[in-house]
TrEMBL record, chain A:
Protein's UniProt name: Sarcosine oxidase subunit gamma
GO molecular function terms listed in the Swiss-Prot or TrEMBL record: sarcosine oxidase activity
GO biological process: sarcosine catabolic process
Matching InterPro entries: SoxG (IPR007375), SoxG_het (IPR006280), TrmE/GcvT-like (IPR027266)
Pfam families, per database record: SoxG
UniProtKB/TrEMBL annotation, chain B:
GO molecular function: sarcosine oxidase activity; transaminase activity
Alphabetically ordered keywords of this record: Aminotransferase, Oxidoreductase, Transferase
The family this protein is said to belong to: Belongs to the GcvT family.
Domain of life: Bacteria
Keyword Transmembrane found: no
GO biological process: tetrahydrofolate metabolic process
Protein name per the record: Sarcosine oxidase subunit alpha
Domain SoxA A3 residues, every copy: 529-610
Domain GCVT N-terminal, first and last residues per copy: 627-901
Length: 216, 1016
């Protein structure tokens, strides 16, 4: 970040430097609603990837694409409602709206990433907002995962309409979430913290007939 | 309990029932036997049960008339126990299961001996259409009393009083082609589309897919038609791109090819859903289908003829007779008279004859019927009476005879001497009405087709009809039509489908049908014995004629005056006949009279299926903060704020006694004023604003000035709608030169976010600024009270010195080792620090505060205490003290309006209108009740002169009112006309109980008017 731009934005690492008890948005849900065990009959399995780093980027696509490419080694998704990932699959960038993307990286990387993006962006005006505490990511897999989604969202999740690499913001039960399909077998749901318990209870209820299990 | 093991009307062989599986069921307290594959109706007929209900208005005995969704009489109440009660089930649509318990919905004390029937007998003349309106409306105040008894007498079933043990859900479906109806046209269409690789959903309301093929006499490829249906269904079941939904009724056609299908998943298995592997199945499911194209293959309903006594049990529609014989092996009587206007209905007599029972006669309204089926009947030696009709059915609880006479349908007269034929069953057919209900749901009015003597659907874009649903009634034609329409539909989607090889059907030559709806009687309609049009709503031909005589000429008015086609029936059996009668009386043609509108739902849908999973604790989202668990564990009572659950107050239990809300709030208030309290303020809306034009944007969206707010500072702002009325308020902090953090009210967060985006995207796209919601990212803890500095000082590295960290400053540092932004913002009037940390770490920070807080008397408080404290300081709550008609000036907040800002801002122009400049607008003031023990009622109306005659001029109302433990008095905020100029005046609040409170108008700040306490 140049001297000139250093005063433009409040760069701020929200993650403590020392070990401090932390709770994912689903902490209360696990405590209160429990975690049904994964068994042989589980045809849907839920797993939370908690404490990941989540950043929202807002700005012009061309400049941002260059900066993201420079820092992450892969660019912004070229088309609406899609996502790109690195080879490990742990870092992803998803299109959210014409000037808005969601970056998810392993927990702890988000502040370094924010700083490096700021440097790469120079004096280009782009918003980078850390939302790691405001949302969490859960994965659904299993043969009935798609049917569970059909119970919950009006969006068409048929493979023809929702191929691997697609991601959308949509209605889920009576809330919103981000729904994406990074691989053939796996769906990812990004839940807002305050709605997480409602959505967790909904998913357990809808998944009961598939003997849904929760990993971890 | 009595038992019947005999099924006198069950044929020795035939039908699609499983004779090896006997099922036992109870109807009106008596136990009967049936078979797997029966409907409740076919089992009742097999057992010779004639009377299944009492009619709605006249309480006449009624029997089963039809075999499907159009059945008007056999409505039953299901359920062996309270929780399992289901009203309004058509016995013709309820599959029989072992242990089924059903009752008639009408009839008290029972259907055989009904108390209300006396009314029906005296009947008619005393209950003409409009009877209820005319008789019971005066005096109007008594209607509520009359209504109770009328409804009890009428009875339409009842809802359960206990919790439903079952679960229901919704499934969102998408497809290229939705085919509704799995008869010949529907199956051909589904096969065509499936083989072309399209995503297909095929649904049918019956237990088995196949529709009319299941009871057809015809052959396909030289085999019984039902066999071809089975083969087609088997092929479709193998296709990954096809979803087959039997027992699934398309109930509503909504906008944009959104169709709701009600699938009854376990209703055929038992009265509650079975448990498999410890998991209870879903009982009913609503499929919410968004289809590319929709094909209606819904078939046709046979129209009964309207003749005198046509409601006596033993009167059926002709097709139903065939269905019961061929599909269920049940022949619903011994001696049949068939009255028809067409060839197709002759099947009933042929099937009856083959079942070995006597066909007394076929009475054909046509002079010289000559089709193939007619010839077959003649060849069997069945008596055919030409040019005639059954003009009257004789009998009471069962048909005992049919009066038959020659008629002139066009002149509507009986031309010959009536002959009485002894019989126990009369079947009739006046033709076939395409099932156009779903097409009508789209708003498209159907059109009359003289050739088929029926209305055919008008279709909006993307909807197709095939087969009988559009009047193509013959088998070969229906199959071909299904295929053709499926190909059209796929072409419309930009796809294509090849023609498929259809099975070969023999063409049966049918003679021309004649138009006959109401059959003439020797007496004029108004004097003749009742001729029923709508059996479910007890509407007679005479009622329709009377309605037209009384001036109801529009068919919509006739419908409402007579109740024809009302309710769950939706005119399936009677509407066309009713229209034909109205047309005759008005001297118009049927197309001139037109149809009424059919509405969703096609047949009743249980509330469970409509609600799905959105019930009980999943009824509405509950939003929780990161500290929710602590609140629960510390006994918080919660308050709903929007969808949030916020702690309302934290009652303590002292000596085994739990504090009341007033006690808890008083304690919490004093703790904040005297020591230190803590509030979970995480629900406040928070918006991160970045960009070089962020500051300019704030200046345009807020009423006050933002140009000079330096990093490290925070400011209170007011947001108006463009009409100048206050919309939301909150503080916004400058985080860096181009970076701000805005807070909004809890309830207003989403609305403010949209508001910002709206103005940015539509009015000021040139401003380089973006908004991101961070409400969930930051947990906010307000530590407030005289001891707040000492407490926070123990666990933070931030310099809290009063000069280094002033009121309305914010600082960055660590609190309990967690990075935090701390804001010196006060909503209590006391020294206050709002601590913001990333929500994942909030619980740790909160608990650490309590570890250190005990010695300072740290007290958690909820929204109620927050309200009292802020009101004592005159801080408003947008949405409580304002209601969309209050300007910032009305609130006395001139100090927060920047009329001299260089650019205009939202609401500015509206604030210079004469109306917003009036000096007698309702303005926010404080009220002090003269009696300090009085807490005024929020919403109470204010008057200047309590002795004024009623109606008194009302000059304002109380917006917030509480008891203040600090003042030891009630106090309130209120809006009063010209209130700012009335300080010290007394106003009055007349209450409902007759008391009138007096209060003094005072300033809005009750505690610490100079604001010294928050500035320490």
């Amino acid at each position: 970040m140049s001297e000139q731009t250093a005063t433009w934005y409040n760069l701020y690492d929200a993650r403590p430097q020392v070990e401090v008890p932390a709770e994912s948005p689903l902490a209360w849900s696990y405590h209160h609603s429990g975690r049904p065990a994964v068994g042989e009959k589980s045809r849907v399995v839920l797993r939370e990837r908690d404490m990941a780093g989540h950043l929202i980027l807002r700005g012009g696509a061309i400049v941002l694409d260059e900066a993201v490419r420079q820092v992450l080694g892969f660019g912004l998704p070229g088309r609406p409602n899609t996502l790109t990932r690195d080879e490990s699959g742990e870092r992803s960038v998803q299109w959210l709206s014409p000037d808005e993307w969601l970056v998810i990286v392993p927990g702890g990387e988000e502040f370094a990433l924010e700083k490096r993006l700021r440097e790469a962006l120079g004096d280009a005006h782009t918003a980078i907002v850390n939302v790691s505490g405001g949302q969490t990511l859960i994965e659904l897999s299993g043969e009935k995962a798609r049917e569970l989604l059909m119970k919950s969202t009006p969006y068409d999740v048929h493979p023809e309409a929702f191929p691997v690499g697609k991601g959308v913001t949509t209605v889920f039960a009576k809330a919103n979430l981000i729904l994406r399909r990074p691989t053939e077998e796996r769906w990812e749901l990004v839940l807002r913290r305050s709605f997480a318990d409602y959505l967790y209870r909904w998913i357990l209820d809808a998944g009961a007939e598939y003997a849904i299990g929760v990993e971890g | 309990m009595s038992q019947s093991l005999k099924q006198p009307n069950r044929l020795k062989e035939g039908g699609r029932i499983d004779r090896a599986r006997r099922l036992s069921f109870t109807y009106n307290g008596k136990t009967y036997q049936g078979h797997a594959g029966d409907t409740l109706a076919s089992a009742l007929l097999a057992n010779g049960v004639d009377v299944v209900n009492r009619s709605f208005k006249y309480s006449r005995p009624r029997g089963i008339v039809a075999a499907g969704a159009e059945e008007p009489n056999a409505l039953v109440q299901l359920g062996s126990n309270e929780a399992a009660q289901v009203p309004n089930v058509r016995a013709t649509q309820q599959a029989l299961f072992d242990g089924l318990v059903a009752r008639s919905t009408n009839g008290w004390p029972n259907v055989q001996r009904d108390a209300m029937s006396l009314v029906g007998k005296l009947g008619g003349r005393f209950m003409p259409p409009g009877f209820y309106y005319k008789t019971f409306m005066a005096p109007a105040s008594m209607w509520m009393t009359y209504e109770k008894f009328i409804r009890k007498g009428a009875g339409l079933g009842r809802s359960p009083m206990e919790r439903d043990p079952d679960s229901y859900d919704h499934l969102n479906q998408h497809c290229d082609l939705l085919v509704i109806g799995a008869g010949p046209a529907g199956l051909a269409a589904a096969l065509t589309a499936a083989r072309a690789g399209a995503r297909v959903i095929l649904c049918d309301e019956q237990e088995e897919l196949g529709g009319s093929l299941l009871d057809s006499r015809e052959l396909l490829d030289d085999r019984p038609a039902a066999q071809w249906a089975e083969q087609a269904v088997a092929e479709l079941a193998e296709c990954a791109n096809v979803t087959l939904l039997p027992r699934t009724t398309a109930n509503g056609y909504h906008d944009h090819h959104f169709v709701t299908l009600h699938e009854r998943r376990t209703e055929h298995l038992g009265e509650t859903a079975p448990t498999v592997d410890g998991v209870r199945s879903t009982r009913s499911r609503m499929h919410r289908v968004r289809a590319g194209q929709v094909l209606l293959a819904t078939g046709a309903h046979e129209r009964p003829l309207v003749y005198a006594g046509n409601d006596v049990p033993g009167n059926l529609v002709a097709g139903a007779v065939s269905t019961y014989i061929r599909r269920y092996g049940v022949v619903p009587g011994n001696r049949l008279v068939l009255s028809v206007s067409n060839d197709h209905a002759y099947r009933a007599a042929l099937d009856w004859d083959e079942a070995g029972r006597e066909v007394v006669a076929i009475v054909d309204a046509r002079r010289h019927p000559d089709g193939e089926l007619v010839e077959q009947a003649r060849a069997r030696g069945i008596r055919i009476i030409e040019g005639s009709a059954v003009i009257e059915a004789k009998g009471d609880k069962r048909v005992s005879g049919a009066r038959v006479a020659t008629i002139d349908a066009e002149a509507f007269t009986v031309t010959g001497q009536a002959e009485t034929l002894a019989c126990d069953t009369i079947a009739s057919s006046g033709g076939y009405s395409p099932v156009i209900h779903l097409a009508s749901h789209t708003g498209a009015r159907p059109t009359w087709n003289e050739e088929i003597l029926g209305f055919v659907p008008s279709l909006v874009k993307g909807v197709h009809a095939a087969g009988s649903a559009r009047g193509v009634h013959d088998l070969a034609g229906g199959l071909a039509d299904g295929m053709a329409k499926a190909r059209e539909a796929l072409t419309a989607l930009g796809r294509s489908a090849d023609a498929i090889e259809l099975p070969r059907a023999d063409v049966i030559r049918e003679g021309q049908a004649c138009a006959l709806y109401q059959v003439p009687h020797e007496k004029p309609t108004l004097r003749a014995p009742k001729q029923f049009v709508d059996l479910q709503n007890d509407v007679t031909a005479a009622a329709i004629e009377l309605a037209t005589r009384e001036g109801f000429e529009s068919i919509e008015h006739v419908k409402r005056y007579t109740a024809m086609g009302f309710g769950t029936d939706q005119g399936k059996l009677g509407n066309i006949n009713g229209m034909a009668i109205a047309a005759r009386c008005l001297g118009k043609s049927i197309p001139e009279v037109g149809t009424t509108v059919f509405r969703p739902n096609y047949t009743p849908v249980t509330f469970g299926a409509i609600v799905g999973r959105h019930c009980r604790d999943l009824f509405d989202p509950e939003r929780y903060t990161a500290l929710h668990q602590w609140h629960v564990e510390h006994g918080a009572e919660f308050e709903d704020v929007g969808q949030w659950k916020r702690p309302w107050y934290f009652p303590r239990t002292v000596d085994g006694k739990k504090e009341s809300m007033d006690e808890a709030v008083a304690r919490e208030c004093l703790a904040v004023r005297e020591k230190v309290g803590i509030l979970d303020a995480s629900t406040l809306g928070k918006i991160d604003i970045q960009g070089p034009d962020a500051r300019e944007f704030l200046g345009r969206i807020y009423t006050n000035k933002w140009a000079k707010l330096a990093p490290g500072r925070a400011r209170y702002g007011l947001m108006c709608k463009d009409d100048g009325m206050l919309m939301d308020d909150g503080t916004t902090s400058c985080l860096a030169e181009n970076h701000f953090l805005m807070t909004t009210t809890t309830g207003g967060a989403a609305g403010v976010m949209e508001w910002l985006e709206l103005w940015h995207q539509t009015e000021w796209p040139e401003l380089d600024v973006t908004f991101t919601s961070v409400t969930d990212q930051w947990a906010t803890m307000t530590v407030t009270g005289p001891e707040a500095r000492k407490l926070l000082g123990e666990i933070t590295d931030i310099d809290l010195d009063r000069d280094a960290f002033k009121f309305m400053d914010w600082r960055e540092g660590k609190v309990a080792d967690v990075p935090a932004r701390v804001f010196r913002i006060s909503f209590t009037g006391e020294l206050a620090y709002e601590i913001n940390v990333q929500a994942n770490y909030a619980m740790h920070v909160w608990k650490t505060l309590f570890e250190h807080g005990e010695k300072y008397g740290l007290t958690p408080y909820g929204t109620e205490t927050m309200h009292v404290l802020r009101a004592e300081k005159g801080f408003i709550i947008a949405g409580q003290d304002t209601d969309g008609s209050v300007t910032p000036e009305d609130l006395g907040m001139q100090w927060a309006i920047g009329y001299d800002k260089p650019n205009s801002w939202v609401g500015k122009r509206a604030l210079s209108r004469p109306d917003t400049r009036r000096t007698d607008r309702k303005q926010l003031v404080g009220l002090r009740p003269k009696d300090p023990s009085v807490v005024l009622e929020e919403g109470a109306q204010i008057v200047f002169d309590p002795d004024h005659a009623i109606p008194m001029p009302m000059v304002g109302h109380v917006t917030s009112s509480y008891y203040s433990p600090t003042l030891k008095s009630g106090f309130a905020l209120a809006v009063v006309k010209g209130g700012h100029q009335r300080m010290g005046e007394t106003v009055y609040l007349p209450m409902v109980d007759g008391k009138t409170h007096a209060a003094e108008i005072v300033g809005t700040i009750f505690v610490d008017p100079k604001g010294e306490r928050q500035n320490v």
